[in-house]
Amino acid sequence: MEYKIGDIINVEVSGIEQYGIFVKVPDSDYSGLIHISEIDNSFIKNIENYANIGDKIYANIIDIDKKNKHLSLSIKNMNYNNSLNSKVQESISGFLPLHNKLDKWIEESLEEIKKEQ
Hints:
The chain is an alpha+beta fold. The chain has one helix spanning 96-116; strands at 8-17, 20-24, 31-35, 56-65, 70-74. The chain has a domain at 8-87: CATH 2.40.50.140. The chain has 1 helix and 5 strands. A hairpin with a 4-residue loop joins strand 4 (56-65) and strand 5.
């Protein structure tokens, strides 16, 4: 598979050190590291509060070393572990159906308010 910076990929945690989370990329020769600075915006006292060995998580590719088949990854600002084990899966259309109905809902709500006055 050809990876690009900015891709969000599914990885498996293979090791945890004080400075970051090591991951393997399933069905790939690539491995990766989520440096401690790319885990959270706040101070991290214990990395194991964020992931455990064997966890399957999503990570954002921030750098690629094609020669060594190594990815630098980030889980900052993303819901990295919720989607894999959730019974509710987001559709491809995301928030589009809500966006498309928003004007109608606002209009209906305004009509109800007018009736109550």
